[in-house]
């Protein structure tokens, strides 16, 4: 914790993970040096501190780093600029007038009236309660992230005979991690007919260790009273319904859940900021400003990213935009462009473009594997951009740039569509 005036700051950033730190650094470098960074954990870095595997930083630093190494690079830059930060600090509310109320053991409950706020709270895992798996509540059931913290930070091995439900990146990485620690990972079950993780993680974490990936399978029942003794798994049909005749029992003492991530948006909702129904994050423009003036959002609290490098890139944009808002005032267009997903596209970020003569990078995810994919961007029947790619998958975020020249004179609604070529 650093000494700072906790009742005043031009810019308050909620969250001291990779997004919050990158936003703070970018805002400082853009000319707003009165920044306050608030983090509920006992150190800056967020979830990266428990991600001891490598693979971080290839885009940002041109080398492979572990999660703590990546976080340390940004923490060093925060400290080099003497940007004030408070750890062990829980933010209680963010008001539409940009008043942030928080508490910690040193200052008690305090409020900061800011000129702008950046939301960078990250995301959380879906729990067993959100999955409604039949069975009692025995010990031995963890989210993959909780197990990761036990193993990597606290030095505990949660169990020896393991089944993993869900093939998101955390689940894939924990399949390898548990194996390296001496556990036997019997299977990774995935409800969908495709994995939700990066292909490199499927190869490096499952195939390299001969761990079976069972697609179109789910855990249909949990067995055990005080301690997990096993799970029943079964195939699902095209409507994701369990096929009872395929059910089989797997004895195990540990079940790890890797069934998706949810943006941590309780503060956003309480502030009355509209959320996107698909991403679970705020609706934003190309500057990552929400529909509430002066409040920006970035990183996994906005939409779940596959690489932390992209989190940092987006957070830099949000930090610069917040600084620009503080120094120059609001820049929202009188008639913004609405961006709508179509075809196989699940969502886009941003969801609106205020259009100020700048190139705009649009990010999107598809909702299913698309081979020979063709991306089209249209205003009505007018084609503005197109792009082809051999394969697009739900586990990898896609992006493309709309040049300012293409956006000149555009108003109303754009549709971003992906279909297989020939359809």
Describe, in plain words, how this protein is organized in 3D:
By secondary structure, the chain is of the alpha/beta class. It folds into three domains: 180 residues, FAD/NAD(P)-binding domain; 133 residues, FAD/NAD(P)-binding domain (3-Layer(bba) Sandwich); 84 residues, Immunoglobulin-like. It contains eight helices and 26 strands. The strands form seven sheets. The chain has a five-stranded parallel beta sheet, with helices on one face. Helix 3 packs across helix 4.
Summarize the helices and strands and which ones pair or pack.
Layout: E1 11-14, H1 18-29, E2 35-38, H2 67-80, E3 85-86, E4 90-94, E5 99-104, E6 108-113, E7 116-119, E8 123-125, E9 141-143, H3 144-154, E10 161-165, H4 169-180, E11 184-190, H5 199-206, E12 213-215, E13 217-223, E14 230-235, E15 248-251, E16 254-257, E17 261-263, H6 266-270, E18 295-297, H7 308-328, E19 337-343, E20 345-349, E21 352-353, E22 360-366, E23 370-379, E24 382-392, E25 398-402, H8 404-407, E26 413-420
Parallel strand pairs: 1-2, 1-7, 2-3, 7-18, 9-16, 10-11, 10-16, 11-12, 19-26
Antiparallel strand pairs: 4-5, 5-6, 8-17, 13-14, 14-15, 19-21, 20-22, 22-25, 23-24, 23-26
Helix pairs in contact: 1-2, 1-7, 3-4, 4-5
Number of strands: 26
CATH homologous superfamily annotation of the largest domain: FAD/NAD(P)-binding domain
Query: Mean pLDDT, nearest integer?
Result: 93
Strand content: 25-35%
Indicate the low-confidence ranges by residue numbers: none
Structural class: alpha/beta
CATH architecture of the largest domain: 3-Layer(bba) Sandwich
CATH C-level class of the largest domain: Alpha Beta
- DSSP helical segment count: 8
| C-alpha-based Rg, rounded | 22 Å
Number of domains: 3
What is the CA–CA distance across the termini? 57 Å
Quick one: overall form? Answer: globular
Sheet with the most strands? 5 strands, parallel
User: What is the CATH topology assignment of the largest domain?
Assistant: FAD/NAD(P)-binding domain
- Give the helix level as a range of percent: 10-25%
